[in-house]
Design goal:
The two termini are about 15 Å apart. By secondary structure, the chain is of the alpha/beta class. The strands form 5 sheets. Strands 3, 7, 8, 11, 12, 19 and 20 form a 7-stranded mixed sheet that branches. A 6-stranded parallel sheet has the order 15-14-13-16-17-18, sandwiched between helices. Strands 2-1-6 form a 3-stranded antiparallel sheet, with no helix packed on it. The relative contact order is 0.16. It has 2 domains: about 180 residues, Medium-chain alcohol dehydrogenases, catalytic domain (Quinone Oxidoreductase, Chain A, domain 1), CATH 3.90.180.10; about 140 residues, Rossmann fold.
Amino acid sequence: MKTRICRLHAQGDLRVEEIEVGEPGAGEVLISMGAGGICGSDLHYFQDGGFGPIRVKEPIILGHEVAGTVRALGPGVTSLAVGDRVAVNPSRPCNDCRYCREGLKHHCLNMRFFGSAMRFPHEQGGFRDRMVVDAFQCEPIRNAEISLGEAACAEPLAVCLHALEQARRIAGGIEGRSVLVTGAGPIGALTVAALRRAGAGRIVVTDLEDETLSVAARMGASETINVRTQAESLEPFAAEKGSFDLAFECSAAPAAFASAAACLRPRATLVAVGVGGTVPVPLNVIVGKELNVVGTHRFFAEYAQAVRLIDTREIDVRPIITAQMDVSEAPAAFALAADRRRAVKVQLSFREA
């Protein structure tokens, strides 16, 4: 049986091709994909051939934000049934390295993560009509009203939930806190939704585009500021050593990192969520205000939590989904996803039959 795939051969060389798909083995299931979100990392691979030190060195099937329907069960699978709709966790830790044994499975030394060029040979991803996956990766969707497009948002939402856990670990609770979110792309918008659910007080969001900021408002932002056209509106928050208790920097832009640090009050916490290369760090501000700066990396237990929040619509992800396009239109879908004036989250759709 053949399946269509979306495979990147080199920078800018994205092709829709066909490969054979086998039957599920022991502990595996065959999934017909319904939706797959185009992530910032997918865009970096396509536009730049990678990001930071991670480079595409061989053809790679992209995609790690995926959901679909179980079509066949391998021997020994009892946790799922044919016809189950599932979100597919792209993480496969080894469960044996020192970090897995310490409970830090998202830092696994042998992590296999869909659509990642971090390892060589690369780990192939989920942008395909059909795919065999481990049954333990599948989180069922029970609510018939939830689309597979919504379910595919579990991965980016899990990233945001882990970022909130990092904030809690350093700063304590989130309830009632004033928060700045810099960057209103998919991660920024979902961070806003997670913060609103967690009981944050004032949530101010900055970005360069009005369209993305309007989505952030729909996700729960108290106030939005276009720092390209209204930069002066952010200045009062930096007065008297800053205003915010927490900041989530979701853009990886040097200017955004600097503005977040400037607007935080002394002993506040800045969570670096966005991924990029080396950027200047305002050490004088960090030292002078005794700021806590903490990174956040992927997720582990938060994936199942994200699925449940989407399945119950405690967090409604629909506002971030700009468009769904068939995988045959992948190049056009990637072009739309790269246009932040028009898109927040663009998804590919697949043949489910």
